[in-house]
Amino acid sequence: MLARAGAPVTLIGRPEHVEAIQRDGLFMDSIRFQESVAVSATTDTAAARDAAIVLFCVKTLDADDSARSLAPHLSPDAIVVSLQNGVDNIERIRAASGIVALPSVVYVAAAMSGPGRIKHSGRGDLVLGRSPQDSAQRVVDCFTRAGVPCRISENIDGDLWAKLVWNCAGNAITALGRASYGQIAQSELALQVFLTAANETMAVARAAGIRLPPVDLAHANVKLARDLGNATSSTAQDVQRGKRTEIDSLNGYVVRRGAELGVPTPVNSTLTALIKLLENSKS
User: Fold this and answer.
1) Which fold has domain 10-154?
2) Can you tell me the distance from the alpha carbon of 212 to that of 87, in angstroms, rounded to the nearest whole number?
3) CA of 185: how far to CAs of 119, 177, 206, in Å?
4) Contact (CB, 8 A) for 70 and 45
5) pLDDT higher than 90, residue 231
6) Which listed CATH number (3.90.1150.10, 1.10.1040.10, 3.30.70.1290, 2.120.10.10) goes with 157-282?
7) Please, what sign has the CA dihedral across residues 135, 48, 6, 32?
């Protein structure tokens, strides 16, 4: 979207995607348009050397190595934004590389449908944490100009955990059930698991001193699942492709924090165990 709006963008990724994008552009099959976008692409992390804003979009599995790879190439005034699932990425990035990144919450249903091809199924908005300088506002302005809704949160920890509630409720279930969010919303039994996983996650958040947004998150997520219809989760996509998932940063993280805080999380523990069994069976 940034490149489509005229911003100079370079994508850094894996060879199969880079080759396709260099040859044909990045094809966006969006709910609003279908278009091939001309954009630079490379496999070399050094391409971030002159970037004003770096969008750190790797899976949590790759966060530490990617941060260490990126750090030597950053200009001193570059803004790094973590566009990732989970709630502890900022700490992990800093511990691995010394990079001080901005936290964000990403709400979008999207998938790589093939090399250099994106399938966008719903939403597409961002929430950023406030920064001491004006860096967060600069990022908001950049995305807003590109038609991407983006705002600054006064309670980014609460917003990160609200997204974690959504991920823990739906990601593993869509993967294990080979189901879309809409199918979960239509199944009474699946909804019971969905809501229990959400409630466990909220209990852990409150025990950790997190101020969650003042809404009924569990039932708001049920509505979101209905609205997303045929879309599925990143965890389901990873399982389908035989890749390792981010389960340790989602339900697994809730299980670990729950154990530390004395909050039982049996459904999240079960979902974590089953996803790990699936991963091991495909390795």
Assistant:
1) Rossmann fold (3.40.50)
2) 13
3) 22, 13, 26
4) yes
5) no
6) 1.10.1040.10
7) negative
Pairing mode, strands 117-129 and 26-29 = parallel
Segment 265-280 shows an average pLDDT of: 96
For the cut 70, the answer to whether the pLDDT of residue 283 exceeds it is no
242: left (phi over 0), alpha (psi -120 to 50) or beta: left
- Backbone angle region of 213, left / alpha / beta, with phi > 0 → left and psi within -120 to 50 → alpha: beta
**276 classed as catalytic:** no
DSSP letter at 43 equals: S
Share above pLDDT 70 across residues of the chain, in percent, rounded to a whole number = 99
The residues, any chain, with a CB within 8 Å of residue 173's CB and separated by 6 or more, are 179, 184, 190, 193, 194, 197, 271
Q: What is the mean pLDDT of residues 35-60?
A: 96
Q: What are the DSSP E strand ranges found in 25-178?
A: 26-29, 34-37, 40-42, 53-56, 79-82, 102-114, 117-129, 150-153
Task: Please pick, among 59, 119, 163, 243, the residue that the annotation labels catalytic.
Answer: 163
